[in-house]
UniProtKB/TrEMBL annotation:
InterPro entries: AB_hydrolase_fold, LYPA1-2/EST-like, PLipase/COase/thioEstase. Belongs to the AB hydrolase superfamily. AB hydrolase 2 family. GO terms for molecular function: hydrolase activity. Keywords: Hydrolase. The lineage of its organism: Bacteria, Pseudomonadati, Thermomicrobiota, Thermomicrobia, Thermomicrobiales. Pfam families: Abhydrolase_2. It comes from the Bacteria. SUPFAM superfamilies: alpha/beta-Hydrolases. Residues 1-96 form the Phospholipase/carboxylesterase/thioesterase domain. This is Phospholipase/carboxylesterase/thioesterase domain-containing protein.
Length: 101
């Protein structure tokens, strides 16, 4: 949901965090991504995710970077869950983004 609705937000959010997310590749995706180039974005994905396989996260990273978005992409040794380590990464990202917002 974050990658679909968050990247379309106008005005943009201060920062977006997608945890084990999916990037729908709709017909208007290139237009959406072009407008979202300045959007701070963190993607967290578990390498053992049995709900949304790691390839889905890696595909989102590939598509977003190819479109020119600067994102922070992190993989963690976890399933479809929130680990302490991944939560620490989210907190650090948000602190960094909100200090400069």
């Amino acid at each position: 949901m974050t990658l679909d609705t968050g990247l379309r937000a106008d005005p943009p959010y201060a920062a977006l965090v997608a945890m084990s997310g999916y990037l729908p590749e709709s017909d208007d995706l290139s237009t959406v991504l072009d407008a979202a180039k300045g959007q701070p974005l963190l993607i967290i994905h578990g390498v053992a995710d049995d709900v949304l396989a790691i390839g889905i996260g890696r595909r989102a990273k590939q598509v977003l970077e190819a479109a020119g978005l600067a994102l922070d992409y992190r993989e963690f040794p976890m399933a479809h869950e929130v680990s302490g380590e991944s939560l620490e990464a989210v907190a650090a990202f948000l602190r960094q983004q909100l200090l400069f917002a």
